[in-house]
Amino acid sequence: VKLLTLARDLQRRKGRERRGLFVAEGVRSAEEIVRATVQITGALVTPELTKSDRGRNLREALDSRAVEIAEVSDRELASAAGTDTPQGVIVIAGVPDYSLSTLRLPSASRLLLLDGVQDPGNAGALVRTAAALGGAAVIALPGTVDLWSPKVVRGAMGAHFQVPTLHADSDETLGFLADRVIELWVAAADGQPPESLSPPSALALVVGNEGAGVSAAWRRRAQVSVGLTLTAGVESLNVAVAAGILLYELRDRVAQS
Amino acid sequence: VKLLTLARDLQRRKGRERRGLFVAEGVRSAEEIVRATVQITGALVTPELTKSDRGRNLREALDSRAVEIAEVSDRELASAAGTDTPQGVIVIAGVPDYSLSTLRLPSASRLLLLDGVQDPGNAGALVRTAAALGGAAVIALPGTVDLWSPKVVRGAMGAHFQVPTLHADSDETLGFLADRVIELWVAAADGQPPESLSPPSALALVVGNEGAGVSAAWRRRAQVSVGLTLTAGVESLNVAVAAGILLYELRDRVAQS
User: Fold this and answer.
1) What is chain B's alpha carbon radius of gyration, rounded to the nearest angstrom?
2) How many whole angstroms separate alpha carbon A254 and alpha carbon A246?
3) pTM (2 decimals)?
4) Which value does ipTM take for this structure?
5) What is the pLDDT of residues A66-111, one digit of tens each?
6) Using an 8 Å Cβ cutoff, are B201 and B109 in contact?
7) 3-state secondary structure of B72
8) Of A134, A157, A237, the CB nearest to B129
9) Cross-chain residue pair A132–B231, CB shorter than 8 Å
10) Which segments of chain A are extended strands (E)?
């Protein structure tokens, strides 16, 4: 398949899932792919790329890794891009091959589960937040935006390659949590403040949809409901901000028992 | 001036500043304006609005406040909108009249200063975060996106009416901090962790640009540099996530001295 055709196909979730590939758009995203230990299939570039020093360095890095490169027009690049400003470069790479059954976790683990998170910017910020705060994995449950879509990849700024990031269905995830003895906590507006709780060494925190929060099914399954006390009259925090505060509060604390 | 012409003019920062007005686009933003104690100048609506129960309720709320309403076409509404989906309604309202000299602050105050924050989504999330975590004011320093632009207003989900939100220049802000004896802290990657610090009762936290962080000038002015310890290899958190964690950590803690 020609790289341009391939990149266009990878704009669709089905195309990405069938091929096990994703695209990173823009100079910064492409740089992160080159730095990561991820399999690169190829790259599309336009003359715009090598007009800047940073773009030239990126081109050299791709060449030195013997990446197959297709030189395309601005218009062709735009036709394969999911973001407005691909900045002259789209890199095609392999989705890292993580699965729940083979996931390796330290004994003290904080996992982040996304239940119906729909905004790509929020999903990207959540992956970035989990990576920055020592999260052991990010698991996208059904109803969550594809974490390998171009906007999520771009928003996460390379975090996909610093924390295992995968999709899983509900049964598979529940089995995994039981097998590994990972306690399930849910973020909810009426939950207890994190300072008042004694987190176990292995914990999975579920955060939910931007409007509706975590679904009733996942709320029922959780052992503990955790939440932040907000100023009266303010309904909620952005989901990535809330997850950041909770992961930070729960990061180094383990119940003394 | 016709409301349509006015709304179009308010898409530009200069128009907003000259007239002291801003626009809220979409049903949710419009609902928040109606709930807030803010002066409403008028509204543009299309037939789309009253096709839903929620839209009809909004229309009734506007009518019951005797708001001047212009019925326009989808095309006209789009011509006056700064977001892609105005959902049949744009409300024009007055920017609340806050100034540093008249700002009323509780003795224990946490202020958030934005130094060169450029992404409207981040700016909106920052206002929302400050409101939710008890911030006493949000002050946008030069180089920051206009906090009254449609995308910021929409992203903040009503928070502009729950925390005083204003723009100020650097000299004015420095004079204000000195007059009110508010300590200046800066968020920086190499700052000390918040848990290790003893915050004063009145504190202003400066957060910075998405790429460059806080400017050298504001870093120099700060008494304390505060930062979060991140996983090795991860460069930074999203600015709203970082501000959320810091404001949460600093919220209820005051130095015992």
Assistant:
1) 20
2) 14
3) 0.94
4) 0.94
5) 999 999 999 999 999 988 888 999 999 999 999 999 999 998 999 9
6) yes
7) coil
8) A237
9) yes
10) 21-25, 40-45, 69-71, 89-94, 109-115, 137-140, 165-167, 183-192, 202-208, 224-226
